[in-house]
Specification:
The structure is a single chain. This protein is an alpha/beta fold. It folds into two domains: 84 residues, Rossmann fold (3-Layer(aba) Sandwich), CATH 3.40.50; 123 residues, Rossmann fold, CATH 3.40.50. It has ten helices and eleven strands. The strands form three sheets. A six-stranded parallel β-sheet has the order 1-11-8-7-5-6, with helices on both faces. Strands 3-2-4 form a three-stranded parallel β-sheet, with helices on both faces. The chain has a two-stranded antiparallel ribbon with strand order 9-10. Helix 2 packs across helix 10 and helix 6 packs parallel to helix 7. Bound molecules: NADPH dihydro-nicotinamide-adenine-dinucleotide phosphate.
Length: 286
């Protein structure tokens, strides 16, 4: 029976034990702006959670909500004004955006030093070179969860299923930088099952309920399930069949209560870090 990678408890510990006290020491509170365009139900839930936690951390927070008809130029103007706003250290534009708006153009417009989601090409480029500034919150949260549980990664065979810029790709880079040997799988991968069976560390970010059956899991493997899927009965489940996987894995994240709360905790940590950088007096001679 696997041990649980309890993201909910760890996130609370990091938020209350580290982020909140560090934020209180600053001369002004860290400022987080969350922009939501449209009325996607899941996005509203995520944005609500993020602003509630920011509130609890004592952050200055602003939620900017606009209707789905908002034009790309209007959204870009909002982002540019947040770029210039001295009270804001972190800007997050909630994805997905309505179809008439080009997500990449919007993400590219966020000032990289305020890009607490880590999606700007400057930040993903820095990560891929192993000199990260802001790391995308979900993969960063997965790594912190593994580190705090004392999971040894060096030399392990890791499999990441999913290659999105938000989760799979940065996750694979972080595991490689932690000295894993990484295989990245996606929808065109052949022989997925045999690759999963060989994984000491398995990270799944597909977005399909229970896509990975428990009997594919290598006994004792570490399983990080990023997927959040809402079933017809309203309950949430991951991309891994938890009930059977928990019997074989050494460690496993529950869904909910695993990666999700860690993602929000990392958003708070990145915003704090941004505020600390901004409030630090420039060093002499630079
Ligand atoms: P995307 O849809 O951007 O990417 C999904 C990836 O899965 C793609 O690379 C796709 O391959 C791959 N894929 C799809 N079907 C299969 C398959 N049958 N076999 C193998 N690979 C497959 O999703 P995201 O990366 O944004 O998110 C993934 C999941 O993580 C979602 O459930 C999302 O809700 C969740 N999520 C959770 C977060 C959290 O905080 N816990 C935060 C962010 C996301 P290809 O590239 O070939 O299309």
């Amino acid at each position: 029976m696997a041990q649980l990678l309890d993201g909910k408890t760890l996130a609370r510990r990091l938020n209350q034990g580290r982020v909140r006290p560090a934020a209180a020491e600053l001369s002004r509170p860290p400022g987080l702006a969350v922009v939501l365009v449209g009325s996607d139900a899941a996005s509203q839930v995520y944005v609500g959670k993020k602003t509630r936690v920011a509130e609890r951390m004592g952050f200055h927070h602003r939620q900017i909500t606009r209707p789905a008809e908002t034009t790309q130029d209007e959204l870009l103007a909002i982002v540019r004004s947040l770029n210039e706003d001295a009270a804001i250290d972190g800007i997050l534009v909630q994805l997905p955006l309505p179809k008439h708006i080009d997500e990449q153009t919007v993400l590219d417009t966020i000032e990289p030093t305020k890009d607490v989601d880590g999606f700007h090409p400057v930040n993903s480029g820095l990560l891929s070179q192993g000199r990260a500034r802001f790391v995308a919150c979900t993969p960063k949260g997965c790594m912190v969860l593994l580190r705090e549980a004392g999971v040894e990664l060096s030399g392990k065979d890791a499999v990441v299923i999913g290659r999105s810029n938000i989760v799979g790709r940065p996750m694979a880079q972080l595991l490689e930088q932690a000295n894993c040997t990484v295989t990245v799988c996606h929808s065109r991968t052949r022989g997925l099952e045999e690759k999963v069976r060989a994984a000491d560390v398995l990270v799944v970010a597909i977005g399909r309920p229970r896509q990975v059956p428990g009997d594919w899991i290598k006994p004792g493997a570490v399983v990080v399930d990023v997927g959040i899927n809402r079933l017809d009965d309203g309950t949430l489940c991951g991309d891994v069949d938890f009930e059977t996987a928990v019997e074989r894995a050494g460690w496993i994240t529950p869904v909910p209560g695993g990666v999700g709360p860690m993602t929000i905790a990392m958003l708070m940590a990145n915003t704090l870090e941004s505020a600390q950088r901004r409030q630090r007096p420039p060093s002499r001679g630079t």
